[in-house]
Amino acid sequence: MGERRLVVGAAIVRGARVLAARRTTPPEAAGRWELPGGKVEPGERPADALEREIAEELGCVIEVSAWLSGASVIDDHLELRVAVARLVDGEPEPREHDRLTWVGADGLDGPGGLDWMVADRPFLPELRHVLRTAETEQHRGVLRAVLFDEDDATEVQRRLRADGYEARLERERLAGEDDDEDHPWAVLTDAPQLLVEVLVDEHDGWLDDDTVASAAQPVAPLELPSGPRRIKRPGAHS
Question: What pLDDT is attached to residue 177?
Answer without folding.
Answer: 44
